[in-house]
Amino acid sequence: MILDIDHVGIAVDDLEGSVERYRRTLGVEPSHRERVEDQGVEEVLFPAGASFIQLLGSLGADTPVGRFLATRGPGVHHVAYRVDDVAASLARLRGEGVRLVDEVPRRGSRDTLIAFVHPKEMGGVLIELVQIAG
Amino acid sequence: MILDIDHVGIAVDDLEGSVERYRRTLGVEPSHRERVEDQGVEEVLFPAGASFIQLLGSLGADTPVGRFLATRGPGVHHVAYRVDDVAASLARLRGEGVRLVDEVPRRGSRDTLIAFVHPKEMGGVLIELVQIAG
Fold it and tell me: Catalytic residues of B, which ones?
């Protein structure tokens, strides 16, 4: 079901400073930036092979990433797996009795279709499923 | 400098139960299992494109992953980036004043060369650099 790691989502306190730090220390260049209002984040993507490193800045304290930063501090927020069909993946997970955050796919950044799986179900890891726009 | 995400390392309380859960829910099959005594872990790898999902069971409470589980609970332990030359990457990081966990590359699982970067330096994310055996 999993085609690849689509990205690792990393919550950061200071988006611009973190982008600069990743550029300088890891020698990566950002390839995409997007403000995703309904998720309350601004994201910057760095390509890493066929995957991405995703830095996530919060658009406010009362957003999922804002609350994550307040309680856990900066760090890995979620792991996103690329699948060919998010709806089919959700059906499989539902069939295994897995609790979902999103019961149906919704629009993500880069015109993707996405859905989140509840972290309680996957050993404390918030998992996102990502279907690239066909 | 970064060729790909080599793997995402996920600390789990129950390695066998977690392997089974990943197999059933995400439809992935383990491709490698290794006990790494000097890191105090047993790891199971699932391929995801050119990357891996790495489940990490602790070999005891007094190991890095054992302490991580005791203080943070199960979840993402580290993110590993594939590079072509770990020694050169360490030199670059050192040149940028980045504090390292490993000053020189050491042997990892799968006959890789690896080094860890201090999480305080990279926004709370423990980063591993991985050079595939040539």
Answer: 7, 43, 54, 78, 128
